[in-house]
Target: Anion-transporting ATPase-like domain-containing protein
Amino acid sequence: QILRNPPPGIDELVALAGVLRLARSKEYEFDRIVIDTAPTGHTLRLLSFPDFLDQFLDKVIKLRERLDGVLGVVAGLFGKRDNLVQQADVAVQTLIKYREEIIALRDLFADADATEFCVVTIPTQLAIAE
Model:
């Protein structure tokens, strides 16, 4: 259910994680990757989103672990224990994979030797003030 209704901004983050996978791929070799971001407010939210998502996924994974026994009992009452537990396990593994990619992306953003952020704006007072 969580994967069906992702939080706002996750699509940009998943796209950035895809860029990271390409950048680290042995199949390609890049000297530079340039990412044109959205206006300031959106970019700042995007840059802070890996930390938020890491904490969120950590809570979801811990909740799943705590509910493991209850989930098995409830699913067993309806004769769907194995199927429900398996679906929950697949969802958790998917979340763990996303979490690892998000952590790698956060670490890349924080690495001054690997990442440079250049501000580009239009020459108006409002844009500069933003």
Observations:
- The chain is about 65% helix and 0% strand.
- The radius of gyration is 19 Å.
- The CA atoms of residues 53 and 99 lie 8 Å apart.
- The mean pLDDT is 78.
